């Protein structure tokens, strides 16, 4: 029995294994080195690959990236941008998306935290792929562009970018942290 016949589903198409290996080998953008962490604006670092305390997914996904975009043919269907909260003692908690960060801060008793001890929280800007302060971000909610866990909030550093995204990909409204309600971060009800 050949090696590829031992793997279920590959017995007739051994070339699929080669394609998967090639895809994962070149998943990191050219010109960058893979890293297990990313720098936050306050000088601390977020460790990629840790588990999100809200949903249990890996921060940065299987690719270990700050921002991941998913396409179906040429259409954008997914975005996952790492998020982080920095506590006053210097500890950093990572999340696989903005929605998980909001849930963590909205239901602190579930996670055994005191939100008054959080110094900073950051989300990944969809446009620049850089961390921005959650208090300055504009979030598109209700879009068809999904995160790792489905429904997510897509963050932007400017309202103009958020409005442009809504025009192209839909969305129910734009919110900021100060205007977010618990129902904004909860899973949408099926209509």
Structure overview:
The protein is of the alpha+beta class and 191 residues long. The chain has two domains: 1-33, no CATH class; 35-185, no CATH class. Helices cover 20% and strands 25% of the residues. The strands form four sheets. Strands 6-5-7-8 form a four-stranded antiparallel sheet. A three-stranded antiparallel sheet has the order 10-9-11, with helices on one face. A hairpin with a 6-residue loop joins β7 and β8. Mean pLDDT is 80; it is low at 1-33.
- Backbone structural class: alpha+beta
Give me the Rg, rounded.
Answer: 18 Å
Spatial strand arrangement across the major sheet: 6-5-7-8
Strand content: 25-35%
How is the quaternary structure best described? single chain
Low-confidence spans: 1-33
Percent range of helical residues: 10-25%
Question: How many angstroms does the end-to-end distance come to?
Answer: 51 Å
Number of helices: 5
State the main characteristics.
single chain, 191 residues, alpha+beta, 2 domains, four-stranded antiparallel beta sheet, three-stranded antiparallel beta sheet, 11 strands, 20% helix, disordered N terminus
């Amino acid at each position: 029995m050949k090696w590829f016949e031992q793997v279920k589903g590959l017995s007739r198409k051994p070339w699929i294994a080669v394609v998967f290996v090639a895809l994962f080998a070149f998943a990191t953008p050219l010109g960058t080195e893979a890293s297990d962490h990313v720098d936050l604006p306050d000088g601390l670092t977020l460790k990629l690959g840790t588990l999100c305390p809200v949903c249990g997914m890996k921060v940065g996904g299987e690719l270990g990236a700050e921002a991941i975009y998913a396409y179906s043919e040429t259409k954008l269907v997914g975005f996952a941008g790492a998020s982080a909260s920095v506590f006053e003692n210097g500890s950093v908690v990572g999340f696989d998306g903005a929605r998980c960060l909001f849930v963590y801060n909205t239901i602190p008793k579930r996670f055994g935290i005191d939100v008054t001890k959080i110094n900073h929280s950051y989300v990944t800007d969809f446009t620049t792929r850089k961390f921005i302060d959650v208090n300055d971000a504009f979030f598109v909610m209700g879009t068809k562009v999904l995160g790792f866990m489905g429904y997510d909030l897509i963050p932007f550093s400017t309202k103009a970018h958020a409005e442009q995204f809504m025009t192209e990909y839909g969305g129910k409204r734009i919110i900021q942290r100060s205007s977010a309600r618990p129902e904004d971060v909860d899973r949408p009800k099926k209509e």
